[in-house]
Predict the 3D structure of the following.
Amino acid sequence: MNTLGAIIPIASLLLLITTGALYTEYAGRMALFLDGIINLSAFLCFAFTFATGNIFIATCLSCFLCTALTFALERLATKCKADMFLVSLAMNLFFSALASLISSLAFGTRGVLYSNLVMFDAKTVRLVTSALCIVFSAALIALLVFTREGLRFRITGSSPQVLDAQGISSDTYRALSWICAALTSSFAGCALCMRLSSFVPGMASGRGWTALAAVFLGRKNPLLVILAVLVFAVAEYASSYIQNIPQFAGISSGLLLALPYLLALLLMFFSKRSESE
């Protein structure tokens, strides 16, 4: 596989997650549960595929259940007037723990799940999931930038009183932003499950946090956010394949796996420094 062919699947998946995160940032309620929802949806996708033998049904069920659960928890937290930052963090832990618990009960293990009933052609799956991620991301970005509904999302976080004064509930758009983030991250989790033809605990591998970093670095500008996604995708590719280069064979694998996160920290540091100057 050539370099571009390897980077595109990584970037497309991260772009979809980041697009959902962008909605929540505009709505003034950043979703910190993305990693957890990716892990849960990936597990559910595997479990439903194992049970039904139909990946389409499994994906739909996984995305629906994860999104519905997110919405229910969001409504409960809003009604109780809870701190949504803390709620979001708690949801991140809850989703991953829930996947582990159900895995233990249903499959007798909290580890890797693999079955001949859940097998896909790797090349076809990468192509199809990458195309769908790009199409969905483009549609969501177009909705955000070019439509009246998108304008409402963009001012929900900064000027909610404008919406409320017009009889439009800003609370509704905050809830919708979390629904969008849950839906995009759920599909990303299913795509990961399909690409690996298995479920691996923690398979989100920090993609949710990387998506949040991309939104921060892009300063909520869709074009800059896309550029940040590409930078992180290249870093993830490099961390995965750089050990194949003889000159880098002696470098610790842990350090290489941390490369995307180190890059994120460096970029955020210099971005913050340039803002202060």
